[in-house]
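User: I'll paste a sequence; please echo it back and then give the predicted structure.

Assistant: Echoing your sequence first, then the prediction.
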Amino acid sequence: MSALSKLQRAKTTADVASILGFKAKSLSYIIYGQPDSLKYKEFNIPKKSGGVRHIASPQGGLRLLQRRLANILQDCIDEINASSINNQDKSFNQISHGFKRKLSIVTNAKKHRNRKYVFNIDLSNFFGSINFGRVRGFFIKDKRFKLDPKVATIIAQIACFNQSLPQGSPCSPVISNLIGHILDIHLVRLASRAGCIYTRYADDLTFSTNKSSFPQNIRPVGK
């Protein structure tokens, strides 16, 4: 049975634990029993652009749990992409290059090679803007997943810290890519109408064009 089918058939904590290679009691203890002080190590690192980036690094069993969840979700994405019969859908799968199998910062950069103008902008607090309810709601409502509400809740509880996706978790990138897919669809269509190419690497959005000047409807005022 595929990873996606297993998640879609899951109904209980025990079902989710089995999929992730944990005992139900161990999973429940990690989610509900451990204090946050034991789950995460928090610290700040300087950003190249100035300021600091807050990191919440999962510890021990939680880190293993999140890594396994990330792998399962990547397997689901591979299955969804392989079964897609719509060429447009397949092309959309190449928009986001961050933290994906066979894609990287290099494949992202290649999309904009030899372009006359390249415009890059960062999304502020990308992971932190994706809250618990949004994660839970995505896995319930998204037509590719449609998970049982209890299972979606468990996934959100594994993935979130302080009610949002933390910077430092192994599963924040894959979940943010899934939720950010609708943003990518809108932006790639906007870029296409303006004669641009658009890609995203995590929270970095890149637009490029060979037009004589960069389109004003893409570039923010003052840039």
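The longest strand covers residues 40-46. The longest helix spans residues 60-83.
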